[in-house]
């Protein structure tokens, strides 16, 4: 197979990555890509995203970015895990079935434990149960099968902890009471985040491209208001903006119109391009680095590898408050944006601990 994709060398695209695997099973229609960014701290762990990418190039770009983010997320969370991610190309509503998931499970199994998979956009705990029928390296399984269940529970909890830490910096209190928070994307994670915010006394405004998700949130929390689009949300009067859908949410255009003092959400890879973190800082907007605050889900599924205890995982996820505070403190000390400070902390751990380990192999 050629390493060329539209004139771009895959080795250049994934120059930091240890391994990228292309998985093809014509019988089921499976087309998947597994990217292992780093196993310096341990086996790579990251979810499987099932999404109708417009092109293979788009899927490659996404899986490389996401897997790199998982390395940083695991390192900053203090886990002995590396970073990986997988994408399955296609519409899960029409393509996903048991046969395809089991075929995918066989590809994950072939990596012999260098990559553990879990849920992500388009996949659920029940899907992990199907994958596990062919594979020993699966987390995020249903409670009935001894798993951690829905990892969005602690993802949202961790984002809320990070938001509290940001509020402490901006307003001198770790409560969101009386603040207006705009949540873009109220699917699995966003809906749980709304609950935490309402319980803390915040005013919440939401939007989602999937109207039934908005309806479900408003049925559960009648005090929540909604707007028709993300563009309308970011142009609203907000104290906090929480991007909880797909990546690339923080663009130059968003920064220009955003009234919020804090950006803190669950989406991965929120900054559309390098330099956006500086634009946020120039406008006096505090950015809570995404992979720092959204690591609760990773903490939850990682705990499953020890024999899952929700109480233990919840306790570890509470530490996201202190980690986010540490990021802000380093940013202030070093005179850099929080996104850069978070990278420095993660890279320091990967360097200091990883040099003792090297490439991870199952033994």
Automatic annotation (TrEMBL):
Gene3D superfamilies: Leucine Dehydrogenase, chain A, domain 1, NAD(P)-binding Rossmann-like Domain. CDD domains: NAD_bind_Leu_Phe_Val_DH. The active site is at residue 85. Residues 149-358 form the Glutamate/phenylalanine/leucine/valine/L-tryptophan dehydrogenase C-terminal domain. Keywords: NAD, Nucleotide-binding, Oxidoreductase. InterPro entries: Aminoacid_DH-like_N_sf, Glu/Leu/Phe/Val/Trp_DH, Glu/Leu/Phe/Val/Trp_DH_C, Glu/Leu/Phe/Val/Trp_DH_dimer, Glu/Leu/Phe/Val_DH_AS, Glu/Phe/Leu/Val/Trp_DH_bac/arc, NAD(P)-bd_dom_sf. GO terms for molecular function: nucleotide binding; valine dehydrogenase (NAD+) activity. The keyword Nucleotide-binding applies. Its EC number is 1.4.1.23. This is Valine dehydrogenase (NAD+). It comes from Nocardioides ginsengisegetis. The lineage of its organism: Bacteria, Bacillati, Actinomycetota, Actinomycetes, Propionibacteriales.
């Amino acid at each position: 197979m050629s390493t060329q994709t539209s004139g771009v060398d895959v080795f250049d695209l994934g120059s930091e990555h240890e391994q990228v695997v292309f998985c093809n099973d014509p019988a089921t229609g499976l087309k998947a890509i597994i990217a292992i960014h780093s196993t310096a701290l341990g086996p790579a762990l990251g979810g499987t995203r099932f999404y109708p990418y417009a092109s293979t190039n788009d899927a490659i770009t996404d899986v490389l970015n996401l897997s790199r983010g998982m390395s940083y997320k695991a390192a900053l969370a203090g886990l002995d895990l590396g970073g990986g991610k997988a994408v399955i190309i296609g519409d899960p509503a029409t393509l996903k079935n048991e046969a395809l998931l089991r075929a995918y499970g066989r590809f994950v199994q072939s990596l012999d434990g260098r990559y553990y998979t879990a849920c992500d956009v388009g996949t659920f705990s029940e899907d992990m149960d199907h994958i596990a029928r062919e594979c020993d390296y699966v987390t995020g399984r249903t409670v009935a099968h001894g798993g951690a269940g829905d990892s969005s529970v602690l993802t949202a909890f961790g984002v809320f902890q990070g938001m509290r830490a940001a509020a402490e910096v901006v307003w001198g209190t770790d409560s969101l009471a009386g603040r207006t928070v705009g949540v873009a994307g109220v699917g699995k994670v966003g809906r749980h985040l709304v609950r935490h915010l309402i319980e803390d006394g915040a005013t919440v405004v939401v939007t989602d491209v999937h109207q039934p998700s908005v309806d479900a949130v408003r049925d559960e929390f009648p005090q929540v208001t909604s707007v028709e689009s993300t563009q309308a949300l970011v142009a609203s009067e907000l104290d906090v903006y929480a991007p909880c859908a797909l990546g690339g949410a923080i663009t130059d255009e968003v920064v220009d119109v955003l009234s919020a003092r804090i950006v803190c959400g669950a989406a991965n890879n929120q900054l559309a391009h390098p330099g956006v973190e500086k634009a946020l800082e120039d406008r006096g907007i505090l950015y809570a680095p995404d992979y720092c605050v959204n690591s609760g889900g990773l903490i939850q599924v990682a705990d499953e590898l020890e024999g899952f205890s929700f109480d233990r995982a919840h306790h570890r996820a509470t530490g996201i408050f202190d980690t986010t505070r540490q990021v802000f403190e380093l940013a202030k000390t070093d005179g850099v944006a929080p996104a850069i400070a978070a990278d420095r902390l993660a890279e320091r751990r990967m360097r200091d601990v990883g040099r003792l380990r090297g490439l991870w192999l199952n033994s």
